[in-house]
Amino acid sequence: MVTRANEPNLILASQSPRRSYLLEQAGLTFSVIPSRFDEDSIQLAMPSDYVKTLAAAKANEIADQHPSAWVIGADTIVTIDREILGKPESPEKARRMLKQLSGQSHFVYTGFAIICKKKQACIIDAIKTEVTFKNLTEEEIDWYIQTGEPFDKAGAYAVQGMGTFLVKRINGSYTNVVGLPVCEVIENLIKMNVVKFDA
To answer: Domain 2-197's class?
Structure first.
């Protein structure tokens, strides 16, 4: 079981219930203090650079307030044909995104940052996963939209929710598509002596 080494204060700088669930499933004990960083203040760049910049900005905001804590920040985007798909604001936008993804492969990028100001420690990285959708019918798209699930999800779907039936194949980290590459995050927490395994 993963536990905190020497009981450091571990903070997740995200209000995402999916990220909290993933860390809880990994056995971590942590606090949640959502970042209020203005994502629109960051200019779009290459996907991996963009998510790393946002993850670091979110983690730094909370780390400045809690310098002794280890803070995890993260950001996830969906891209297809060099276009970034955000969270749809209407059924029409959700329908457009789902039609765009139908029968195609796209990429999910999640950037993560682990920062402790007191120890002057910082790791920032991004993980990329390829996701392939099945060919969607109009009926399937209409049904999925009426569930309401697409509206707070990048790319208009949740692979861990009802949207699981949309996905034909995943090449890479599944948890990265959910919102946090747990394997890589835990590996870095172990390297930084933030967590350890009980004997």
So the answer is: alpha beta
